[in-house]
Amino acid sequence: MKALAFDVFGTVVDWRAGIIGELEKFGKSHGLQRDWPAFADNWRVGYAPAMDRVRRGELPWTRIDDLHRAILVDLLIAAGIGAGDSDIDHLSRAWHRLDPWPDSVAGLTRLKQRYVVTTLSNGNVSLLTNMAKHAGLPWDCVISAELFCHYKPDPEAYLGCAELLDIAPAELTLVAAHPADLRAARAAGLGTAYVARPLEYGPDREPYDVASDHFDIVATDFVDLADQVGA
Amino acid sequence: MKALAFDVFGTVVDWRAGIIGELEKFGKSHGLQRDWPAFADNWRVGYAPAMDRVRRGELPWTRIDDLHRAILVDLLIAAGIGAGDSDIDHLSRAWHRLDPWPDSVAGLTRLKQRYVVTTLSNGNVSLLTNMAKHAGLPWDCVISAELFCHYKPDPEAYLGCAELLDIAPAELTLVAAHPADLRAARAAGLGTAYVARPLEYGPDREPYDVASDHFDIVATDFVDLADQVGA
Fold first, then answer.
1. CA A123/CA A146 separation, integer angstroms
2. Which of A49, A96, A169, B99 minimizes the number of CB atoms within 10 Å of its CB?
3. Confidence check: pLDDT of A218 > 90
């Protein structure tokens, strides 16, 4: 193993708390009360089908920023909320301003001493770059599905990341809290590290039973991951 | 101005001193004495025509790592030096292990507080990533001509960088010690910052007369650049 590529939304940053917080701020400044946690969940839920339309070729390549904005506009209309373009722009970029899980920066800082650490996210390069500045994430480089015009779980994203790092797929480990992402990485020849993020979807979810999968590493957080790989 | 994109070889790192040092090490371990400064200069001189063959379409897209290796092999043959593949691999990656100019890290660290700072180099992503780890360069992201399959000074490289950062060309400033690079950036609509690196080609060169060009910023080093842009 020479490098670790990190899924970002849910694995490195707590998108749900961050998006709820931004929606609450938006609601306050517009004098609105809504079920913001449900709004946040619906925003996130809209993301996979939007990406799948790009993956199937029904849409040309479209950045996550633009997908996020389109989903947001639909949700605002459905909720009967009117807002100006610049307010919508700002809110749609809430995904640039997410905070890391408490262990993320400490774990990445240790892992970076020994390995190359990069993003491998469906988020676009500018989103990931702005988020890293906001959250203090010490990436060695910022690699995104945008660079390959292929969203994960397309194999082009995993293989493209290894190629840019000039290493073999087996020398690259994907770190993610999402089994489907890890299974696709494994199918492309990458190593796999599952990190549990039991609060990603809120407090009421059943924990995922990782024993039903075969990942190379199973870690409780990034500090545990650093311990396990000797970083 | 929202972001600064940095040329790297010569602008951020002192390639000549670094390459001479690596060649001297190579010579010592192989019991060879040669004019290593001249060898280093010839290695560097070979790089522009090799890239131009790619730019004209005479060669398919080829990474700088591979161009550097091919030029090195020719120079070793011409000098009557035999070496094994793994020694040549190691030496050809000397470009990954270059040291920064004395002001580079301090200046970038200040500039990063206020602006996005990225590479915009003809070096490939893995080269730039390894160099940043070696030299402690605090990039926000690593952008390379490799991502566009277009070497500078092709406009695609400058415009592609702005597009990945999701900013207008005029919001991006190229920082370089090389007037031709800056002129091409300006033609693509970017801002320009010339930084003098009078020792790039060794101690005996005439200083470049910057007064004959019209760059937005002219700085003596990266700390002076930070002062001038309020970072």
1. 8
2. A49
3. yes
Minimal Cα–Cα distance from A96 to chain B, Å? 13
Residues of chain B with pLDDT under 50: none
Min CA distance, B77 vs chain A (Å)? 26
A140 Cβ partners below 8 Å, 6+ apart? Answer: A112, A116, A117, A118, B129, B132, B133, B142
Can you read off the two tokens belonging to residue B199? Answer: 């020792």
Burial group, residue B191, by CB count within 10 angstroms (0-12, 13-18, 19+): buried
* pLDDT at residue A212, rounded to an integer: 82
Parts of chain B belonging to CATH 1.10.150.240: 15-96
Contact A118 B129 (CB under 8 A): yes
CB pairs under 8 A between A and B: 61
* Chain region(s) in chain A for CATH 3.40.50.1000: 3-14+98-228
In this predicted structure, what is the pLDDT of residue A78?
Answer: 96
CATH 3.40.50.1000 in chain B, residue ranges? 3-14+99-228
B109 in A contact zone (CB under 8 Å): no
What is the nearest CA distance from B40 to chain A, expressed in angstroms?
A: 25
- A210 falls in which pLDDT band (50, 70, 90)? confident
Q: In sequence order, what are the beta bridge partners of B5?
A: B118, B174
Of A116, A125, A164, the CB nearest to B141: A125
- What ipTM goes with this model? 0.95
Beta-carbon contacts of residue A26 (< 8 Å; ≥ 6 apart): A32, A83, A87, A91
For residue B14, what are the contacts with CB-CB under 8 A and spacing of at least 6? B98, B99, B100, B101, B199, B200
**Residue labelled with tokens 């009078």:** B198
E-only strand ranges, chain A: 3-6, 116-121, 141-144, 172-176, 191-195, 217-219
Query: CB of B137 within 8 Å of any CB in chain A?
Result: no
Q: Which fold has domain B15-96?
A: DNA polymerase; domain 1 (1.10.150)
Residue among A65, A112, A141 whose CB faces B141 most closely:
A141
- Taking only the tens place, the pLDDT of each residue in A146-173 is 999 999 999 999 999 999 999 999 999 9
CATH class, range B3-14+99-228 = alpha beta
Chain-chain contact of B166 with A65 (C-beta, under 8 angstroms): yes
Distance from C-alpha of A47 to C-alpha of A16, rounded to nearest angstrom:
13
B62 interfacial to chain A (CB closer than 8 Å): no
